[in-house]
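It is worth pausing here to work through a concrete case rather than discussing structure prediction in the abstract. The textbook approach is simple: state the sequence, then state the predicted structure, then interpret. We follow exactly that order.
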Amino acid sequence: MRSYDAWIHHSEAGVLLPILNPMGLIAGARGVLLFNRSLLKSPLAVGALVPSSPQLSRLIASQVGGGSAHVLEIGAGTGSITDALLRRGLPASRLLLIERDPALVTHLRKRFPHLRVRCGDAAHAEAILREEGIPRVQTLISSLPICNMSGDDRISIVRRMMKVLAANGQLVQFTYAANCPFPTALLGLRAERLGRVWMNIPPAVVWRFTRRSQVG
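Step two, the predicted structure:
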């Protein structure tokens, strides 16, 4: 049993319960500890109180289709969404992770030794993809704390993220605010609210962004 099988979700109580897997339990606890350290070190950069819940992770993962196109996850954290993507059947060869915290990068590489994990942020995405031999990605999943950024920084970040998407690609972003996090008219984007996940701390809203000029 892999380390990311160390927890199961009790749907009625809304809490995480450990299963009887000592090694997995230790690995899971290590991930939470690293997340808490990162939160204390830079709360605005982390932007969350706990890692993404299984419900939030599954909703995000459900937006990724089949085929051979690549998926980029920025701000992978402890790997909650990564786990959901793999459980849904996404081949490891199609997935690339970027995480800015070196300690979490080490954790991700140990938890998912078959994945490519790079240390960096959205500003480095284009260069990292070029180094990995990936021209564009079909889906970019962002866990960045967008609502903690200034308006100018949000615009700069989303432009960088859209730059690495294929012409018909999608940006999937979750946020804890109810309103759309980006000025879509200014950026030439179409926004679709995919749903609110109440079983998350705090509750989260998942958005999909595509180019307005995109066909279909």
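Step three, interpretation. The chain has one domain: 44-211. The two ends are 41 Å apart (CA to CA).
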